[in-house]
Design brief:
The chain is built from 13 helices and twelve strands. A hairpin with a 6-residue loop joins β5 and β6.
């Protein structure tokens, strides 16, 4: 990567796409990454008659290598490409350098065999030729790429990469940590024995947050992602006026009792998810029959069993809330108290000795991330690293 190359990380969510300029500095022989001055976002325009194909159908079509995309799905897919192009073009226009552009992109969904398209996705259109279409639009606009966009990554993996390589990243100074970021969905990331370990690599012994049923019934992602947290609160207060923003954390700070009670529930659910991670990594997955056959089929023994985590990181929107404690809402403190209770009531000596030897959670175990736009940061780092290795 030359000095005048413009590095851009793209975070493609289920409702909008965000693009950020990322700068690279050398410090003690290591690259450190920070957000640059330019950023842009676009909310996806919604095609009225578009309804995602059922996921089982999508999986079947993928497995048979026959993906049938109807006109409404193609129109919606085109809107997603347009939004990504517009966000990138805006960053290029206002960035601090005018050189060739290097881009990393993270997107939800299962990727095509060449990792350049999306062939299965929960809440959006399939885009088997995503990067090919995006590159064509960039080329037509006269935006010169320093190299082809190598592959689509996952936002969860990119959050972990962002925490490892960003100047303020909380993976940097520890060997063992778990990251839980809550935005549109929940992003899980782990660093174990000094190495980033993806949940895909560890699929035999740990599930992603969208797969794990909480004690409330629905998965954690359906309850405590930032999007779900807001939607549940709106139902609780019967808020139907979309022109007026209502956020449970803001209303809790302002003393609204329903908001305070819901945020207390959120803190307990987040603590339960983190406890599940502590138990699974340190002592093997809990024997919870209520979580279903797929959960019970996970290996209790795994290569990292017995590892004590040095840090639990809460990121994205929930991380922002945790980093701004208030007398009416100290989310991080509430999570810490519930987590200590879960560990204590487990009566598991290994967990208690590791995380609550004094009856309270070990100091500084929980930390709120200050890495803004972690998925975009990780996407940029991955793109930069790909070029460095080529």
């Amino acid at each position: 990567m030359s000095d005048n190359t413009l590095l851009i990380g793209v975070d493609g969510g289920a409702t909008e796409v965000k693009a950020h300029e990322v700068t690279v500095q050398m410090s003690d022989g290591e690259r450190q990454f920070e957000l640059g001055i330019a950023s842009a976002s676009r909310v996806y325009e919604r095609i009225e008659d578009f309804v995602p194909a059922p996921v089982p159908q999508q999986l079947s079509e993928r497995d048979h290598n026959v993906i049938e995309i109807k006109p409404s799905e193609q129109k919606q897919a085109d809107k997603w490409i347009d939004a990504a192009f517009e966000a990138i073009a805006e960053v290029v226009k206002s960035a601090s350098t005018s050189g060739p552009v290097q881009i990393g992109v993270g997107m939800p969904g299962l990727k095509s065999p060449d990792q350049r398209g999306i062939v299965v996705i929960n809440n959006g259109p399939r885009l088997p030729k995503y990067l090919e279409q995006l590159e064509a639009k960039l080329e037509a606009a006269g935006i010169k790429l320093a190299a082809p966009i190598a592959a689509l990554g996952s936002d969860a993996d990119y959050c972990g990469i962002g925490e490892e390589h960003a100047a303020a990243g909380l993976f940097r100074d520890v060997d063992n940590a778990y990251y839980m970021g809550a935005g549109t969905g929940i992003a899980d990331a782990m660093k174990l024995n000094g190495k980033l370990v993806t949940f895909d690599e560890a699929a035999g012994w740990i599930q992603k947050a969208w797969q794990v049923d909480s004690s409330y019934g629905p998965t954690y992602e359906k309850l405590v992602s930032a999007k779900s947290m807001n939607e549940t609160y709106h139902r609780l207060i019967n808020h139907t006026d979309e022109s007026v923003a209502r956020y449970p954390e803001t209303d809790a700070i302002n003393g609204n009792q329903i908001a305070k009670s819901w945020m207390d529930s959120v803190s307990m659910l987040v603590a339960e998810l983190i406890y599940e991670r502590l138990h699974t990594i340190t002592a093997g997955r809990p024997n919870r029959k209520d979580r279903g056959e797929n959960y019970l089929a996970l290996n209790a023994d795994h290569p990292y069993r017995g590892t004590k985590l040095d840090r639990i990181i809460i990121g994205q929107r929930l991380g922002q809330i945790c980093s701004q404690p208030n007398r009416n809402l100290d989310l991080q403190e509430q999570i810490a108290k519930y987590l200590a209770t879960f560990v204590g009531e487990s009566q598991n000596k290994e967990l208690i000795d590791a995380y609550t030897p004094s009856g309270k959670l070990e100091p500084r175990l929980l930390a709120a991330s200050n890495v803004r736009a972690a998925p975009a940061m990780g996407a940029a780092v991955a793109a930069n690293s790909q070029t460095a290795l080529s």
